[in-house]
TrEMBL record, chains A, B:
GO terms for molecular function: DNA-binding transcription factor activity; transcription cis-regulatory region binding. It comes from the Bacteria. PANTHER family: HTH-TYPE TRANSCRIPTIONAL REGULATOR GALS, LACI-RELATED TRANSCRIPTIONAL REPRESSOR. Residues 13-67 form the HTH lacI-type domain. This is LacI family transcriptional regulator. It comes from Glycomyces buryatensis. The keyword DNA-binding applies. Keywords: DNA-binding, Transcription, Transcription regulation.
Amino acid sequence: MARSPASRGARAATLSDVARLAGVSVATASKALNGRNHVHAQTRARVLEAAQQLSFSPNSLARGLLAGRSGTVGLLTSDLVGRFSLPILMGAEDAFGAGQVSVFLCDARGDAIRERHHVQALVSRRVDGLIVVGSSTDPRPPLVEGVDVPVVYAYAPSEDPADLSIVPDNVGAGRMAVEHLIACGRTRIAHISGDRDYSAARDRVVGAEAALEAAGLEPVGEVAYGTWSEGWGRAAAGLVLDRHPELDAILCGSDQVARGVLDTLRERGRAVPEDVAVMGFDNWEVVATGSRPGLTSVDMNLEELGRTAARAMFDAIDNEHARGVQTTQCRVVIRGSTAPVA
Amino acid sequence: MARSPASRGARAATLSDVARLAGVSVATASKALNGRNHVHAQTRARVLEAAQQLSFSPNSLARGLLAGRSGTVGLLTSDLVGRFSLPILMGAEDAFGAGQVSVFLCDARGDAIRERHHVQALVSRRVDGLIVVGSSTDPRPPLVEGVDVPVVYAYAPSEDPADLSIVPDNVGAGRMAVEHLIACGRTRIAHISGDRDYSAARDRVVGAEAALEAAGLEPVGEVAYGTWSEGWGRAAAGLVLDRHPELDAILCGSDQVARGVLDTLRERGRAVPEDVAVMGFDNWEVVATGSRPGLTSVDMNLEELGRTAARAMFDAIDNEHARGVQTTQCRVVIRGSTAPVA
DNA sequence: AAAGCGACCGAAAACCTTTTCGGAACCTTC
DNA sequence: GAAGGTTCCGAAAAGGTTTTCGGTCGCTTT
């Protein structure tokens, strides 16, 4: 590591050092550096020069101690490895990082003990707020400890309706998907979903069925619940095609399921999108673009969700804050697997 | 948000509050809470009771100010969205989180300006160390600013050999892959790599060719460089099969490329693994397990890399620290796409 | 020339914890 | 009863910054 030439090993330059070098008091140095008035222009220049020379960097710990706020927030995920946390985290980091706020990242690994430990550490560090990111959209118990800072729950809502939670609009996503298929002229739409235990799967089904009903259409067969895997998509597509060969679209619970469905369709010689249109959810870039044809998918806008959570956090820090569950919009990303009927 | 019942709105309990409630001085309260001796057992109990009652949480800012170290480290990624940063970050967070260290996460989005800004902020927060995570294994310029804390570069090494860098052993990975194929009895091994501009691709090729030579085997055709995509895998597999129909194994530059190769092999009626064995790199779980058959792959052990970087950071914080580029081991994960010849 | 006023600067307190060192209280022993 | 030792507790300083308030200096006005 390269040590800065200015600092001779031991400790970083302090405001006193700057003041001494500039020949003023610490008070004046502070005012000069922070752009407060009542400082002569020439004096200010001397201070800035001295600070530059010592590569002075104000100690945020001392500043935070005095101000009573640290300028930091905690981001507590329960499952970082899952791919849903990451974009949320990016959005939040984006919104905070643009300001003066730094982000503590903690991953609880789905362990409640670990979570408590992390919360305790964050409280001790006097974070100004806390964003709790869940690993699925199913509700989770609120943080129990005496947390004295604003908390925003993202992705997974808190079970306590008095808390503020930001979640993706899965019902709306299901609706948008079906509306897109209908707009493509499809009328015989089957639905191969994911794991029934996930509210995300059920909510998307609710939205899809509502859109079908609104259009006066009947679903083709029952919704097939299974797992979130490609294997399930392959197997389920076989079953559905056997029973309902007349279908002209398959809505899939996730992009992975859709990949499996595409596999089976190709094996059976059903052309996509001419014969059958296919859609997925999540818009998982690498999965959706790697398939043949590219997969139309509903993007859950998770990065926007993260930004929204961060903004809600800002609001909660100074003003009094909102409560309840808020949803964020999704959007359809059209690729080759859906197209208007000829 | 639920406010703790103990804190009546305004500010968190301080050590003075605890001391007052326990009827002792702050000095004694501090000693009691930190388990120092020279405190009567009964007095200690009174203090602990008081702290509990006020849900006291020591102010890490004040503690850090006094101790001269904050107990935090910065994790600076250049591309969080890429899937390589995440496991490294998890490993590091794991290693740090187990101790008393909290982690600041910053994403520079590949922007040098943004990176400087984040470094400045981290220095101001008096982090005890810094891990810089790159987005590819190609060397990157070192942090220029007068950073007065230990820096460890992970994944992407620093261009300055005086810095400490931890990178995955791509050469070893290539070697291990070919050794596995040879152990399966394959002798006519083709190599479809990824983007030639990435040192990861070139290093893997180096290792693979070394292993072939060590076994007295000739490569089948030239190494095919292209992109890291499924599409490239599909196309390249077609070309290679046309020219070298005798091959009995294809080593692929990444799991995504391997997925494409598998596609083409199936279309051409070549059985995997009986006829042709296929391997990838990265062991990207969802890609490698979703394919038919499951994809044998070389895991780069990125989480371990993150942990190693964190440990190196610890060493650098107290002792004087190491320099140069260190590599971490990879490992072969065997699935259905490779098997001994019958 | 005295008074008044504005512009600029500095001393000191505050934030909260840890550590050092001196002092008080109590007990033992001669 | 005094000397000495042990055990426990408290005063105070340190760490770096910001803010408040009082003070100094020079200039203007009458």
